[in-house]
Design a protein that fits this description.
This protein has 321 residues and is an alpha+beta fold. The chain has nine helices and 15 strands. The chain binds adenosine-5'-triphosphate and magnesium ion.
Amino acid sequence: MINHDIIKSQLSHTLQSTDFPGLGKEYKGKVRDNYSKDGRRIIIVTDKLSAFDKNITTIPFKGQVLNQLAKFWFENTSDIIGNHVIEYPDPNVVVAKECTPLPVEMIVRGYITGVTSTSAWTHYQKGVRNFCGNILPEGLKRDQKFEKPIVTPSTKAAHGDHDESVSGQELIERQLLTADEFNHLSNISLALYQRGVEITAKQGIILVDTKYEFGKTSSGEIVLIDEIHTPDSSRFWFADEYAERFHKEEPQKKIDKEYLREWLAQNNFTGEGEVPEIPDDIKIETARRYIEAYELITGQNFNAESGNILERITKNLNKYL
Ligand SMILES: Nc1ncnc2c1ncn2[C@@H]1O[C@H](COP(=O)(O)OP(=O)(O)OP(=O)(O)O)[C@@H](O)[C@H]1O
Ligand SMILES: [Mg+2]
């Protein structure tokens, strides 16, 4: 596990934002800077952390962790489906094929859980027994494992609108996907989830649920895009405590990205007003947890690349500029 002083010395070198007009048309998400040109998309993962829909701060090595976690999973699933990756020229950067995203997120759930309005458990508690075309039995308890993992698609709403959970049937009726495409994506999503479950199980981790995005390449091939099995797109629990906590009806122990969010809430920030000053120790602990998540999920050591990230990226992207 990484040394505290390495994280501390990186506090002044985190990656906040980039500006590379030469890389192409720019699109900035909450944490990733995307540049598109000539059929490729360069995605730079910054160290920004957002919570309560606000940009809060930067966390040392967070961008590297998220980028390299996705890299680990793209590499470990490429026999199931091709992906958008062309190369990783820098620890924080992926160069990808520019694809036409399919208008759907494929969510796979192995367990019934969650507290938000879109969660399976929330729907179930309200009496829903047909969830996105999946018939759920009576008597399920919170955090219970489904007999078989289920696929619950969600439409990718235009900016401002909310994503909507739908059944495959509805996707087909609305002509968002053909029946063949939906069946193909369902099978692939279940196979990807199964692979994720097998690999994390060796680490004592449960991949609870996750979402996948797909796109079409210029030659018409459907590939996996965006990110895969990162803490931003997935939920992870600790396997050794699962059964006991489930029977005692206690919350599961999770690999969480909520540490800073919880600190903010304790300091009376839930999205309104000014973001409180975040002490270095809190940032360092947040970084340590991201790195720990990387090591727990992959079973590999994290090689922190310290120093001035923007200078390094500029050098590593030289051939694209
Ligand atoms: N290879 C690709 N080709 C085309 N689009 C892609 C590719 N990979 C990812 N995308 C899409 O690019 C968009 C940008 O993603 P990004 O995560 O940076 O921002 P966002 O999803 O708009 O916001 P958020 O910060 O909430 O995730 C997403 O809609 C994603 O589906
Ligand atoms: Mg996104």
